Amino acid sequence: MGTTAAIMVFLVVGVLVAVVVESQPGRGPPMERAGRLLRKQQYVRDRRYCRNSRCSSHGSCFFRKQRYSDTIGCRCDAYYTGSSCQWDACDEEGKYKKVEFANNGHTYCLSFGERRTGFNKERQRCSSILGGDLAAVRDLAIFNLLKSHIGTLRNDGAPAADWYTGGRDIGNNGIFVWVSTGEVNTFEGGWASGEPSDVGSAQYSCIAFALANSLRFNDLHCDNTGGSFSSWVAAGICEIAPPTTPPIVEV
């Protein structure tokens, strides 16, 4: 047998052996076997994660085995967030003051305030971080509760001068609605004397507790993210209704 023929026979035999090895039941190609091993190791690690209870006392660990990847995480109790449910969503790193109102079971989160904020920015923050909406101050009881706590915040050094509620004159026609529900505001007892004073203005159309008006309602400018309002410190009041199901935070 010549050299060329011998080489050809060797290659053919090698290919046949490889085919036989790769086709053995229960083994599969090397990459597939490696994938199964990694998934098994991941499964053991994930089960150990839940067994060691990495979630705080405000959440419970869940483990969901799937075909290609497993999911683990913490199912947080109401009003808690973070990868281990370690933060009260309404007091994350001291950014908010939490106020609970027994009359309606709602929680109100009062921001300490910052520069360059506005109605839309505070509303988006309220929704994405806290799962609520800017507060609907429908009656005197809610008004007095929030006004009192805003006063406490000021005494504690909060820099904000105005706190946005969820009231806005969307149509610029003097009719203020609560954006969380779309209902028309019928509570007139919160306005400062002479307010609202900018009816019809597209900019000054947001209801806020205003320090300049002894923390009564003013139809405030809705945006101070730049321009002449950039030095003005404002804040938002987020209203959170009791959740029907706890959120899931995956890690």
Task: Briefly summarize what is shown.
This protein has 251 residues and is an alpha+beta fold. The protein is 28% helix and 27% strand.
Give a description of the structure.
28% of the residues lie in helices and 27% in strands. It contains four helices and 15 strands. It has helices at 3-22, 30-51, 119-130, 140-155, and strands at 59-64, 71-76, 80-81, 87-88, 96-101, 106-111, 114-115, 133-134, 162-168, 177-178, 183-184, 204-210, 216-221, 233-240, 248-250. Strands 5, 6, 7, 8, 9, 10, 11, 12, 13 and 14 form a ten-stranded mixed beta sheet that branches. The chain has a three-stranded antiparallel beta sheet with strand order 1-2-15, covered by helices on one side. The protein has a two-stranded antiparallel sheet with strand order 3-4. The model is unreliable at 9-25 (pLDDT under 50).
